[in-house]
Specification:
The chain is mostly helical. Helix content is 69%, strand content 0%. Helix 1 crosses helix 2 and helix 4 packs antiparallel against helix 5. The longest helix is centred in the middle third of the chain and has 30 residues. It is rod-shaped. 12% of the residues are buried.
Length: 118
């Protein structure tokens, strides 16, 4: 909802742009810029328009990053780990603070799991 609101709010000041003849032109430019497509058929020429465009470009990059991260997170969490590996995964998440004993324990758990499956 926030992105849609930003999209329409960024269109309002773009009416002062000489290149944009209608609301539809400004909306088209806003969508193309926010999605980082950038066809180049419409572009701002005033300082205010360029500042708005710069802001919209950064928001678009952030939006693409968030969407990509959400999709990647969905697929990486799609397969649930077996109970034996959950402790190992949680330990790996705390990697920088692991002691040598904790690393050895993880290795023993993995080797035991490998023997049981083999």
């Amino acid at each position: 909802m926030l992105v849609v609101a930003l999209l329409f709010l960024s269109v309002i000041p773009m009416w002062v742009e000489p290149n944009f003849e209608s609301f539809e032109d400004a909306l088209w430019w806003s969508i193309v810029t926010l999605t980082t497509v950038g066809y180049g058929d419409l572009y701002p020429v005033t300082t205010v328009g360029r500042l708005i465009a710069s802001f919209l470009m950064f928001v678009g990059i952030g939006l693409i990053g968030v969407i990509t991260g959400m999709v990647a997170s969905f697929f990486s969490n799609a397969k649930e780990l077996p109970e034996e590996l959950r402790d190992v995964r949680e330990s790996i998440d705390n990697y920088p603070s692991l002691t040598n004993g904790e690393i050895d324990l993880m290795i023993r758990k993995l080797e035991s799991l490998k023997k049981n499956r083999g």
